[in-house]
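Recap quiz, item 2
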Amino acid sequence: MTPKAAIRAEGERLLAAFVQAGAVSVEADILQPAGTLLDLYGEDIRARAYVTDDPVRGEMMLRPDFTVPVVQAHMAHGAEPARYAYLGEVFRKQMRGSGRASEYLQVGYEVFDRAAPEVVDAEVFALFRDLLAGLDLRPVTGDIGILMAAVRGLETSERRKAALLRHVWRPHRFKALLDRFAGRAPVPAGRLQLLERLKAGSPAQLIAEAGTFVGLRSAEEIAARAEALVADAETPPIKATEAALLYDLLSLEAPAAHALAHLRGITPMLPAIAPAVDRFAARLEALAARGIDVATLAFEASHGRTALEYYDGFVFSFLAEGMPPVASGGRYDALTAVLGAGAFIPAVGGVIRPGLVARLKGAEA
Amino acid sequence: MIRLGVPSKGRLMQDCFDWFGARGVVMKRSGSDREYSGVVEGVEGVVPVLLSAGEIPRELAAGRIHLGVTGSDLVREQLAEDEVAEVAKLGFGQADLVIAVPNVWIDVETVDDLDAAAAAFRKAHGHRLRIATKYHRLVRDFLQAQGVADYQLVDSQGATEGTVKNGTAECVADITSSGETLRANHLRILSDGLIHSSQAVLWASRMAEWSAEDRAAMEQLVQRLGVRSPL
């Protein structure tokens, strides 16, 4: 076991380095209102975060990360541009026998800046690389923005694009939807029967025949979706060539410079990704300017597409064998809009786990 | 002594006694009708512990009983996989944990439809689609595995079928054997909405201390019951 004092000392060192890099050190409450986090992540977060009950404040969660409170604080009264750093415990439930810590320190760095996002992406990544130098970690990068741009550019209905975008962070569901929209998976039997029924009468008539009306979901909402289902059944499948490009994109894993060449190669067939690929190119240039070898830097197009995430652009992790990611981060522009009640600012940041850094440095009790 | 937890009353107790009795292990309540104690005949080293069926999972997890009979729904909801091992399915107490929606939702037939309806519902109403249940873990694991979003579980410890009509939920995830109560409350089960098929199961606790004598008694018991020990 790494002694707690050694872990905290490592955390303090990293926090000082973030402050040195221009960040203001901030604090966040450990008890966070559960409602905000549940609305953001959905019920899935209950399996990962500790929920507790307060007789006055209602359901509260033990801080599962700092990003949400830091974004909220910035959106409420932050000046621009801003760089923040923090150090403190986060709490995550773990599977029995996983051996993973359910309470550990996180030290983080978040940048809210409207100027040249790719340059800021590179700044954050290079800072993390410098602080983690000598630990023999494997950096992996990705860019969820390219995938989202590809979906937005599909020649299909807005409804289908919205369904795919909504599930970008749930790879299993995303794939199932894409398979169906591309005609690769058969329409489920239940859906075929449903379509038969919906074609047999007007929605209003079918609703009336279904008996007593119960529930808050109105007849208009039900009818609107019934009509949309019938319309969707008549939507032609996503073209095979276009679908093939998207499947190819989902599985793209290559050194960053090579990935860029590949993406440039497919852009003429998927023109909608051009701006996102340009941003990727600008980021690689900015990374190279900071001395990062983009000819060897790992790039995975699906990196960062896991549940309980909110990244929508550049993503990165620093990995070591046999432990959770030592550091991870990314760009989360959309989150600031969700939490900002209409306001929006591009944001990128990341966290390091001082406990893992200390363990890698061999700080033993 | 192996402590064997069995339901202390009602149909479940009788079915349980019958199942063991049919295999030559006779369980009886001892003392007066109101006293919760019992005896086992036909096998050595086993003592019955009469408990509320709902408490048996907790007692298994705590290791205070070695064996226990209770529904697989309760065990899957409350315990981790490695806390208990299944000894035998008993073939009674069958009931299904299912997702049911208002029958007037003519556009919702599958979990996939529910997911899409939840997205639209949240946009229209400003809150997530509410699913009333008392099986939070089973329902959440099921919906997470299917990648469903924009829903919210609301706790309902009883009369769950009534929550939709009462306006406290949009749909339910509840246990049913015939589906009649659901239908009577104008609800319909999703065609792929089966979350868990439950029945009474004899469980062995991995958390209890099993002495050499207990293990010997267990060998005798499983032979008598015609099943294999999972320990």
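The two ends of chain B are 16 Å apart (CA to CA).
Chain B has a mean pLDDT of 93.
End of item.
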